[in-house]
Amino acid sequence: MINMVFTDPVSIVLSIILCLCLIRIIYDWDRNVNTNFPPGPMAVPFIGHLHLINKNEPFKNIMELSEKYGPVFTTQLGTKKYVVLCGYETLKEALVNYADEFSWRSEIPIFDEIAKGHGVLFANGENWKVMRRFTLSTLRDFGMGKQYLEEKINKENDSLIQKIESFSGQPFENTMTMNAAVANIIVSILLDHRYDYEDPVFLRLMEIIHEIMKLLGHPMIILYNAYPSLFRWIPGVHKTIKKNMNEYHNFIRETFAIQREQLDANDQRNLIDVFLVKQEEEKLHGKYFSNENLVHLVSDLFAAGMETTSTTLRWGFLIMMKYSEIQKNVQNEIEKVIGSAQPQMKHRKKMPYTDAVIHEIQRFGSIAVITSPREISHDVVLKGYFLPKGTNVLLMLASALKDKDYFEKPDEFYPQHFLDSEGNFVKNNAFIPFSAGRRACVGENFAKMEIFLFFTRLLQKFTFQLPPGVSDVDFSPALGLTRGPKPYFMCAVPRF
Fold first, then answer.
1. Which residues 6+ apart lie within 8 Å of 402 measured at CB?
2. CA-CA distance, 142 to 296, in Å (whole number)?
3. Closest C-alpha to 302, from 164, 202, 437
4. Distance (Å, rounded) from C-alpha 271 to C-alpha 138?
5. With a threshold of 0.70, does the pTM exceed it?
6. I need a labelling partner for 338 at 20 to 30 A (CA). Which of 65, 81, 480, 489 fits?
7. Phi/psi at 381 (nearest 5 deg)?
């Protein structure tokens, strides 16, 4: 009789339907144990809302659910539920008012398998606190926010200008050129070194990082994170990422092994030297300044220090080609305030229009669509909803930068978002491209200085134009962990 039941097609279909219904009932019961939990759309069993993932902008459709369910709602990726937070006020309440409760990073299989809790981006607890304090203090010691770093950037600007001039106004694709210039700044702090733009080792490093960042935004990685035990043993982009990360980490290990041999505690030249001295100091009883923490810390800083700033600048040049009148206005202000001298950070306060344009580039580009997911460490009541300890949270950073309550034209490039009626620069509270709270970007001041000095110096020297035969720009983003423009060609025409 049992065999008859399981071989009868009708019985099989009815059994499957019954199982799905039971799963649905169990899921709904679990979701509504606390009736004050945020609402959300009905999820497909086992799949959740993965069918909403957009291959070009993975979390765009998820974020748009806030239009129906409000700034706090529930979604499900695979079998894992998340509370999604949208809009500046909601993000501020979570990240600032409940800074401690929202500082614990949620489990993300691909990152946990690579970093294993080391470094600063994907660490938690005391290890994260120690690495973050070390990073902030060391970056300050090596010039973050100081004239020393300003001079480094301006010197690198000289090399970048030479490289751009070598194209003689002809079209070129700018990704690796901008990556190289920006990467050399963080390399100078990490290694006390500078690479030539054509150095094969440097080119390989940038190629690895660029491919990793691109593949980490692939929809297959979202599936991998949803079902790691299913995908772990089969071929896919996760295998390529891990292979590239191994090559990247081996380079870092070889580098600090060489520096260890040359280490002079009385002459600490770079961040790796400082770390190695700390390692010697805690050798007897310490556990934080380990080789693996060093590998992943350098890896985190190099990738983050290159990718986000370079991507912001590439958005900037693309936007300037689209809006030639805005580009001209920036150049006029540069001529008025700086002339032919080297731009310096002291000029920024005298350049409200340029400052507004840079802010709007960051807002419009929305490089970081989402912060790393969080796991709430204590019960929280947020916007009237009860979020118990252990709740996983997705913080949609881009939703603050596109918040209609703070930005008049959120979907347009509009520098007036940061200007008053008299042309003075005005701050906008919802401008949080570097996130906020305990896990705000450690290199925020570092990045701000780079973006201003690179952007103004290049617009001082060149006018950026579309290549002959190209009539418009494409603002649709490329695939990647960060939201960057698709590769494009541009012409940099010398101004003098």
1. 366, 410, 411
2. 20
3. 202
4. 6
5. yes
6. 489
7. -105, 115
